[in-house]
């Protein structure tokens, strides 16, 4: 449950007049099979799935997504995670793995003017930050513990 001041609610409504979702899962579900960009405006405690045909860009915007299952994000589609916020945004999981990837996962962006961030986005898992058997593009950020790569 989030407790926002009236000023915070007004600021969010002005910035996003047409696109408001109760949680990250609702925003991802609204993407259907389209490409969409989600900008976090609050920290959240939930675990979410990116489905096979989904193409999602998640801008952490300095916010934290904390998993409630044995993963925080299960990606079977195409997922780009970036963090354009002034503070460090994170994807965390205190139980196990932050990101399980069987699709295409991109951490950060490949910019024309190469500016590499070694701190954001920040991926923190208890057993591993990222487990992947899919495609993994690593441009920016940091992941803790280990990255588990499965090959065929």
How do you describe this structure in short?
The protein has 152 residues and is mainly beta. It has helices spanning 6-15, 24-30, and strands at 35-39, 44-45, 48-50, 55-59, 64-66, 71-75, 78-82, 90-93, 97-101, 104-107, 122-125, 128-132, 135-138, 142-143, 147-149. The protein has a 5-stranded parallel beta sheet, with helices on one face.
Structure description:
The chain has 2 helices and 15 strands. With 152 residues, the chain is mainly β. The strands form 3 sheets. It has a 5-stranded parallel sheet with strand order 1-4-7-10-13, covered by helices on one side. A 5-stranded parallel sheet has the order 2-5-8-11-14, with no helix packed on it. The protein has a 5-stranded parallel sheet with strand order 3-6-9-12-15. It is globular and about 45 Å long. The model has no long low-confidence stretch (mean pLDDT 85).
Number-wise, the strands total 15
Helix content: 10-25%
SSE arrangement, N to C: HHEEEEEEEEEEEEEEE
Radius of gyration: 15 Å
Shape: globular
- Please state how the strands of the largest beta sheet are arranged side by side: 1-4-7-10-13
Separate helix tally: 2
The separation of the N and C termini measures 42 Å
Unreliable runs: none
What distinguishing features does this structure have?
single chain; 152 residues; mainly beta; 5-stranded parallel sheet; 2 helices; 39% strand; globular
Itemize the secondary structure elements and their pairings:
Elements (H helix, E strand, L loop, with lengths): L5 H10 L8 H7 L4 E5 L4 E2 L2 E3 L4 E5 L4 E3 L4 E5 L2 E5 L7 E4 L3 E5 L2 E4 L14 E4 L2 E5 L2 E4 L3 E2 L3 E3 L3
């Amino acid at each position: 449950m989030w407790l926002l001041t009236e000023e915070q609610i007004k600021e969010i409504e002005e910035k996003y007049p047409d696109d408001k979702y109760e949680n990250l899962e609702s925003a991802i579900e609204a993407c259907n099979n389209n490409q969409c960009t989600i900008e976090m405006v609050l920290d959240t405690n939930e675990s979410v799935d990116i489905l096979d045909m989904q193409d999602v860009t998640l801008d952490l915007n300095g916010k934290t997504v904390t998993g409630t299952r044995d993963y925080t994000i299960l990606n079977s589609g195409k997922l780009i995670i970036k963090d354009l916020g002034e503070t460090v945004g994170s994807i965390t999981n205190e139980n196990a793995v932050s990101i399980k990837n069987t699709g295409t996962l991109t951490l950060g962006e490949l910019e024309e003017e190469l500016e590499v961030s070694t701190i954001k986005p920040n991926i923190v898992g208890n057993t591993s930050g990222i487990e992947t058997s899919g495609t993994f593009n690593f441009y920016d950020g940091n992941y803790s513990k280990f990255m588990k790569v499965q090959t065929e």
